[in-house]
Batch of 3 targets.
Target 1
Amino acid sequence: MFLCVRRLAEKHWNSSFRCMSSTARKRRAPRCAFPVLEQPLQPIHQHVHDGNLRNSNACHQKYMELKEKVRRGGGENAVTRHTQRNKKLLVRDRLRLLLDDEDFLELSPFAGLGLPYGDIPSAGCLTGIGRISGLWCVFIANDATVKGGTAYPITVKKQLRAQRVAIQNRLPCVYLVDSGGAFLPLQSEIFPDKNQGGRTFYNEAIMSAMKIPQVSVVCGSCTAGGAYIPTMAEETVMVHWIGTIFLGGPPLVKAATGEEVTPEELGGARLHAEVSGCVDHFAREEKEAYDCTRNIVSTLNFQLPDEEEEVKKAGAEEEPLYSSEELLGLAPRSYNYSLDAKMVISRLADASRFQEFKACYGKTLVTGFARIRGHLVGIVANNGELLYQAALKGSHFVQLCDQRDIPLLFLQNTAPAAAATLSTTQAEMNSNRLKAQGSMMSAVACASVPKITVVIGGCHGADSYAMCGRAFDPNFLFLWPNARVSMVAPGHSSSLLPPGGEQDDLNEALKEESSAFFSSGRLWDDGVILPQDTRKVLGNCLDIIKQQQYQLPTEKRRPMLLRV
Ligand code: COA
């Protein structure tokens, strides 16, 4: 039921935002001078700060190692085969030609690393949000150096997540298709279930019906399932010689009929542009295809604000009073090393200004308003355990932001273990807390405004649901590299199991499985971001979320029925 309420509410947010007249949009927001959060680092914080900093530096090193691993894609041989034998551009070079600039938001770059079936760099497919002809678009681009761009279970999950990002934020979606279809040895985990391969095509239709434009570029093979992505997109470009679309390739034709055909004859760009009509634009080479795609995006008929207005907005943004580098010493290496959440807020908010809400009540949760790169947001930040009063306050504040159409930012650092029930007083406290947390969860689930979650420390137990964890469907969820994600934190499982070997094993497993990189490898989030980059990432996300107001509103509830 909550989901229905939430969907209705989301619809309301989307439509009311988009229907706003341009005059209303041009009206100035009231001036604000929120109080400045004076939160310098004090000598008393030194010990905790230094411990956190050492841990952050170690995490940073791991982050850089994984980044390098991902950058190498499928390895040297595969890169040579891709560029020299197959004469194709590498996926990052393709993005360079497609996007306005290199300042794009890559989603889950570490997805696919450390999986039971091996390391699949970038999950075989890069996803993210970048500007094309001035418009923020989601891109989903296969990396054919990783096993011919075939889809592993994690690839499918990553594609579906990128489509969900496009749906939730109403962003046009561009597919660069270069894929051998399903990775056959794992077909049972790719093909049959609801959120598996077929869902990508289902989403394409649903997105079109929602007026979320989709464009595809065939810049490699599109075999089997891969063939439906370009044929279901609203507009498709195909590159001569390197692009092919067919359900079964030449070897299959030979086996079935004995006939020998070349890939080009069977499903090349000329055939599909001139005979089958499966594609709409023929490009002689890759660069031409991306130029063509940029032109297509410029016909999507969004009315973006003038550049002058953008420049004015950028000029009005004030940096925080404290260096973002100081966040490295605030990123808790464990829950016990958490410093006041306001210290983090003061290093993220414009001019470190914050209008706190209910400052004297439920102090283990900090709530209030700030601007981040010019965008007004409601911030909800853990500052201790999510106790009864804190959860009630959270519930109130979330509803307040929903009422005022203000996006929510959750800074999550939840307690490592649930409170034990050792006495009747404790039982009563726990029951009250349970009720208040339930109420906060309902408020978060049903809030129609965009939500962004950054796990800055712990993501443990039920508190993490109320703080808009993955199951609560935030528009974006990022982790700092020091973050820990697990039901119970390492070292806190003693109340769950009797002492002995099992407990040690569990602790060991928790240590490994709760790391931010383990989580990101499995795509439980949208990526690990560095603390010092958080303000920039949040600014981009808020710009991205806002773009939907520039799409001209029209009623349309049917997908385009294409190429029939
Ligand atoms: N499942 C599993 N592995 C696959 C695969 C698939 N569907 N398609 C390709 N691979 C693997 C290859 O075995 C090879 O692995 P290796 O590097 O360990 O040797 C790697 O991907 C690259 O394939 P290769 O054929 O050497 O590269 P290529 O650039 O010449 O061709 C394809 C790439 C995708 C065009 C070609 O491999 C192909 O047509 N594959 C079959 C596609 C298909 O029929 N899919 C049906 C899915 S339902």
Note: The chain has 21 helices and 16 strands.
Target 2
Amino acid sequence: MKIVCIGRNYADHAKELGNDLPKEPLFFNKPDSAILAKGNPFFIPEWTSDVHYEIELVFKVNRLGKYIQKEHAWKYISEFTVGIDFTARDVQEQLKTKGQPWEKAKSFDGSAFIADQWLTAEGVDWDALTFGLQKNGEWVQQGKAKDMIFKLDTIIEHVSQYMTLKIGDLIFTGTPEGVGPVSPNDVLTGYINDQKIFDLKVK
Ligand code: ZN
């Protein structure tokens, strides 16, 4: 399986990192080796001194498809949750400056945390759905699904023109504003609406 991640999909987050808004979905991949094993803490790699959390809505693909039209996109998704797209921001800045791909900063082992608990996507009011992240009990990110620049149907239509979506693939849909660094012993807590979805320790 693969993980497709959307970058700069919330205007206030693109702004906080000094990026222009994309005109079409910007995406990159994480390999399956990036998935943080269930129950494990997140270990900060030794080659970075600035790993950021990015809380994101994550959707699971349940049907094989290519060239999926927008109006059929939701047939390819049945469950969603939240996850963290861990990013070595210092390394990413160096790569961006050199015009190089982001994999070292975004696709390393453990960089894809996905909560264990999945929710049913059918019937959800996406205009009302909120999600967020607390670090050590303080809110650091609070997002609204309706603030996505490119909604999930547009993302699926766009990405599936380039790569086949397969059963079990995951789509990270971008992070709202408020990204910041993690330190050893931090505890990250993720929410969808008022519901606590995960606790994750940092080492
Ligand atoms: Zn992200």
Note: The chain has a mean pLDDT of 97.
Target 3
Amino acid sequence: MRILVLNGPNLNLLGMREPEIYGRETYASLCERLTRVCEAAGVGVEFFQSNHEGVLVDRIQEARGHFDGIVINPAAYTHTSIALLDAVKAVGIPTVEVHISDPDTREPFRRISYIRAACIATVKGKGLSGYEEAIKILCRHLGK
Ligand code: CA2
């Protein structure tokens, strides 16, 4: 079983800005932690971050036939991108949406999530441990 962990715009800045919202752990350290979690569970994992919507769409399309599940934090594209919604729908790979904060309790413009309609679950407001929870949800869903 292989999982692709996708992160959208500005999440490469984790740990460097706004620690009161997004914590102090860096993107690199998050990837290392999730690698260990997946290794322990016997699950293959790959990470990809981009600040560009079309690049994320390309990565989702390329996942077909290579990954059994996707964990995605689309960041700001959550609230704007029908292209990401369509890509996840098109590949048909079970996908879990993750948010470090709880967008529903922040500004009103964060309350819409386009991608949610294509996801089997959403984990929000649990900090970076939300990514681990999303991986567990996928493992359960895929019978691992
Ligand atoms: O809570 C989340 O995970 C979000 O997806 C984060 C997005 C935001 O637009 C969503 O509404 C909720 C923003 C990601 C920005 O990441 C940063 C990380 C560190 C420092 C600055 C920005």
Note: The chain has one domain: 2-141.
